[in-house]
Amino acid sequence: MSSEHLGERLSALVDGELGPAEHESALIHLAKCEACRFEADMTRRLKRRLHGLGEPEPDLDFMGRLSSLDGRPGGDGPGPFDPPFGGGGGFGSSPPLGSSRPIGGFPGGPGGLGGEPLAASAQETAGPATAAPGAPNPGTATQEDRGGSDRGGSELLSQLLNPFAGSRYAVAGAAVVTALLGTAFVAGGEAEDTPVVEPRLADYAVEHAVTSRHIPVETSPEGYEPPPGAGVEQAGR
Amino acid sequence: MSTEDPSSGARRPAVAVLFVLTGLCALLLTSAVHPRAHEVPAGGDDDGMPVLRAAAEAEGETPYAAVRQVTGPDGRPYGLRVVNRPDEGLVLAPVGSEDEPFVVEASQALESLDDRLLQMLRDTYRVADAGHTDLGGRPARLVEAERADGTVAGRFWVDGDSGLLVARTIYDQAGDPALSSNLTQLELGEGEWPDRAETGEPWGEALDAQERGDLRSEGWKVDEHLTWNLRLVDARATEHEGHKVVHAVYSDGLSQISLFVQRGKLGPGHASSPSGGYVGTEEGGTGISPEHDTIFGGDVGQYQSMWQADGFVFTVLADAPAGLAGSAVTALPSPEGSGFWARVERGLSRLGPL
Questions:
Q1: Residue B173 to residue B153: CA distance in whole angstroms
Q2: Which residues pair with B227 in a beta bridge?
Q3: Are B311 and B263 in contact (CB under 8 A)?
Q4: What is the dihedral sign for C-alpha B276, B214, A203, B299?
Q5: Do B226 and B158 sit in the same domain of this protein?
Q6: Which end of chain A, C or N, has fewer beta carbons within 10 A?
Q7: Per-residue pLDDT tens digits for B72-113
Q8: Last residue of a domain, one of B173, B200, B227
C-alpha cells in the first residue's frame, strides 16, 4: 500500500470516511508520499472553501411571486421545515402582498409574518440542506450578517409606518362618518311629493279670533283714543 | 432607560378619575336644580273658581252691549264695540268702523272650550277670590290667578250687579301688564245686531284623541302639551285647496295660542324661504316683519309667526304675553335651514336612533 498512491481513498480520508485501520495506513502513506500529501492538502482547502460559501440567497422576485400565490398570511403552526428563527410580528407591519419582498421581510427580520414556510421553501429551492436537522447551520450567521442592511431598511420602513398604525382605524372611522353624513343628507332632502302651500292667514286669523272671542288681527284699528280714565289698572285695587 | 418620572404614570389615572368625578358632580348639581321654581302648577285652594264659573254662565245668559278696550304691552288701548246675544253670538266692531263688524256665532264648541279654559286655569294657577273691589265706580269681585311662586299671573273683575266678567288683565313674569281688556259703557239688554257682517265659527271637524294620535303617527305635530303650562284645549281641522289644516289651541287658562299646521312647504318666493327663519313677530313679540303683507298685527299683544320645518308649515297666532308665545314657538320644530348641515341635521332627526 505504501508503494501505491491513495487515489480515491484520499477524498475518503479528507471526509473522514475511512475505517481506523485504513485511516492509520493512509496517514503512514502520506508521511512518505509527497504527491499524495500535496493532493490531500489541496482537497482539504477546496472543502473548506466550499463550506465557506454558505447558503445561496433566494431570488427576491421569485419569493414575492411565490408568496402572492400563498393566500394564507401565516402557517398553521410550526412545520418540519421551520427555521430556528421565529417570524412573529404584529398585524399590518408587513409589506403588501405581491411586492418583491417576501412577506414579513427577510427570515428572522422583525415583524415578519409567515416567514417560516417561506424560509423552508428557500432551503428546498436552493438544494439539500447543508446541515442535518438539529445541527447548527453554518450559513446562518453569514446570512444574518448579510441581511442586516436589508433588515435595517425594513425596520426603517416599520418606523415610518408606525405613526400611521392607527390610521387604519381613522380611515375606517372617516368612512363610517362619511356614510352616515351621506345617508343623513339623502334622508334630509325634501320629499318629491311635498306640496308647496301658501297658508291662508286671513282664514287663520278668523279662526283664531273665533276661539279667542276677539276680532281678526288684520282689521285691528289704529288711532283709537280710549275714553279717559277707562284703563283697567286705574280701576284696580 | 426612561427619564420619565415613574410616579407620573400612576398620577394620570388619578387625574382622569378626578376629572370624571368633577364632571359627574357638576352634572348632578345642574340637573338637580329645577330650571325655574315657578314652572310648576300652583297648589292651594281655588276658591275663586266658583266666581269665574258664575261669570261664564252669566255671559251665556245675559245680553248686553258695551265697548271693550284692549290694551297691549305698549299701553296703547283700542276699542271694540261689543254686542252679546247668547243665542246668536257676539258682535265685534272697531269703534269708529262699526260698519265692519265681525260676528262670532254661538256654538256648543265654544261653550265647551270655555269650560276647558277654566279647567286649565284651575290646573295651572291658584285661583283665589280676592274679595270685593270697585271698577269704574261699579262694585266688582276680584279674582286672582297666582303662580306657584305667589306672583300674580292674571286678574279678573266680575261685575257685582250683572255677574258679567267685565275686565281681565294678564301679567308677564316681571309683573307688568301684558294684555288687558275692559268693558266700558256696559248696557244690559239686546244691542243692535248688524245686518251684514263677516261671520266666523270654529272649524267643523273636531279632532278627538284617537284622531290626534293618528295624526301624530303620520308626523303631524299636534302635541297634548307644548310646555308645562300650555295644554291642548281644542283641536280642529279643515281643508284648504284639498290640503288638511289643523288648528290646535293651547292655553294656560289665561291666554290662547293658536297653532296652525299644514303639510307642505313654503314656495321659493316666500319671505321665510331664503332665510329659513320665522316670518312675523320677532322674538319678544315686537317688530313685526314687514316682509309678508298678510301678517300684520296690531300692537295689542298678538303674536304671529310662520315657518316651515319637517315637511310642515307652522303658523302661530297668539293673544298672549310674548314670553308665553315665545315658549310655545320654541317648543315646536325650529325653522329649517337650506344649507348642507341643516339638511344633514334634518336627515338625522328623520332617521332617529339607528
A1: 7
A2: B230
A3: yes
A4: negative
A5: no
A6: N
A7: 766 778 889 999 999 899 999 988 888 888 999 888 888 889
A8: B200
Q: Which of B59, B67, B69 to mutate to test the interface with A (most CBs of A within 10 A)?
A: B69
Residue B80 CA to residue B69 CA, distance in Å, equals: 6
CATH code (residue B138): 2.50.20.10
- The answer to whether B127 and B49 are in contact (CB under 8 A) is yes
Domain end among B164, B185, B200: B200
Query: Which residues does chain A have within 8 Å of residue B201's beta carbon, measured at their own beta carbons?
Result: 210
**B95 contacts: CB under 8 Å, gap ≥ 6:** A221, A224, B67, B78, B79, B80, B81
Contacts of residue A159, Cβ cutoff 8 Å, sequence gap at least 6: none
DSSP summary character for residue A91: T
Q: ipTM of the predicted structure? A: 0.81
**Domain assignment of residue B1, yes or no:** no
Are A199 and B260 an interchain contact pair (Cβ–Cβ within 8 Å)?
yes
Cell 372617516 belongs to which residue?
Answer: A174
Q: Which one of A47-56, A181-190, B50-59, B278-287 scores highest in mean pLDDT?
A: B50-59
* Number of domains composing chain B: 2
SS3 state at A211 = helix
**A235 contacts in chain B (CB < 8 Å):** 134-136, 157, 167, 182
pLDDT tens digit string along B123-157?
A: 999 999 999 999 888 899 999 999 998 899 999 99
Please give, one letter per residue, the 3-state secondary structure of chain B.
CCCCCHHHHHHHHHHHHHHHHHHHHHHHHHHHCCCCCCCCCCCCCCCCHHHHHHHHHHHCCCCEEEEEEEECCCCCEEEEEEEEECCCEEEEEECCCCCCCEEEECCHHHHHHHHHHHHHHHHHCEEEEEEEEEECCEEEEEEEEECCCCCEEEEEEEECCCCCEEEEEEECCCCCEEEEEEEEEEEECCCCCCCCCEEECCCCEECCHHHHHHHHHCCCCCCCEEECCEEEEEEEEEEECCEEEEEEEEECCCCEEEEEEEECEECCCCCHHHHCCCEECCCCCCCCCCCCCCCCCCCCCEEEEEEEECCEEEEEEEECCHHHHHHHHHHCCCCCCCCHHHHHHHHHHHHCCC
**What is the distance between the alpha carbons of residues B246 and B262, in angstroms, rounded to a whole number?**
7
Most confidently modeled range among B96-100, B154-158, B242-246, B346-350: B154-158
Query: In this structure, are B218 and B161 located in the same domain?
Result: no
Collect all residues of chain B within an 8 Å Cβ-Cβ radius of residue A205.
Answer: 317
Pairwise CA distance, residues A231 & B135, whole Å? 10
Contact A210 B177 (CB under 8 A): no
Same domain as B295, residue B192: no
Residue A226 has a pLDDT of 39
* Domain of B251, in residue numbers: 205-351
Q: Which residues contact A9 (CB under 8 A, 6 or more apart)?
A: A18, A22, A26
Q: Are residues B56 and B193 in the same domain?
A: yes
